[in-house]
Amino acid sequence: MLQAQSIVKITDNTGGKIGRVFKVIGSAAKRYAGIGELVVLSVQVAEPRKAVKKKDVLTALVVRTRNAKRRKDGSYIRFDDNAVVIVDKKKKELKGTRIFGPIPREVVDAGWNKIGSMAPEVV
Q1: Which among 33, 38, 61, 111 is placed 20 to 30 Å from 67, CA to CA?
Q2: Band of pLDDT at residue 91, cut at 50, 70 and 90
Q3: Pick from 72, 62, 5: which is nearest to 36 by CA?
Q4: pLDDT digits (tens, 9 = 90+) for 37-90
Q5: Is 23 helix (H, G, I), strand (E, B) or coil?
Q6: Whose CA is closest to 44, among 53, 35, 36?
Q7: From CA 11, how far away is CA 8, in angstroms rounded?
Q8: What's the number of CA atoms in the CB half-sphere (13 Å) around residue 25?
Q9: Domains, the chain, ordered by start
Q10: Percentage, residues of the chain above pLDDT 90
Q11: Whole-model pTM above 0.85?
Q12: Cα distance from N-terminal residue to C-terminal residue, the chain
């Protein structure tokens, strides 16, 4: 689960490497974001000469969290890092063309089929 001030890894090829969450999209009182939810973040570290620059404020989708998530079959899924992918705020489409690392099934079930097809592995 991510909250304001959480440091996340940006796991696509838009140029951002590390970001800091400062808002969870939802109601005004929504505090935590889990897998498959949208957050607003600021880019802290970025690669030079790419689409995303340092200090950019972007919308991102949470694809991995360190906190365990319980699945319907009773199993749990947990990752080694907190990771997001950058999405377009209005169109709800990906900005990047590649995704790195595994993506959980919950993201595809939440309606992000393109992320599931672009990911190297869906767990």
Answers
A1: 111
A2: confident
A3: 62
A4: 999 999 999 999 999 999 999 999 999 999 999 999 999 999 999 999 999 988
A5: strand
A6: 53
A7: 9
A8: 13
A9: 7-122 (2.40.150.20)
A10: 93
A11: yes
A12: 18
Structure token digits, residue 7: 């440091």
Distance CA 118, CA 96 (A): 10
Residues 38, 23 contacting (CB under 8 angstroms): no
CA angle 20–1–46, rounded 5-degree value? 25
Question: What is the DSSP code string of 39-108?
Answer: EEEEEEEE-TTSSS-TT-EEEEEEEE-SS-EE-TTS-EE--SS-EEEEE-TTT--BS-S-B-SEE-HHHH
Opening angle at CA 119, ends 113 and 123, nearest 5: 85
- Which amino acid does the sequence have at 4? A
* Per-residue burial over 29-50, b = 16 or more CB atoms within 10 Å of its CB, e = otherwise: eeeebebbbbbbbebeebeeee
Contact 68, 108 (CB under 8 A): no
Phi then psi for 116, rounded to 5 degrees? -65, -35
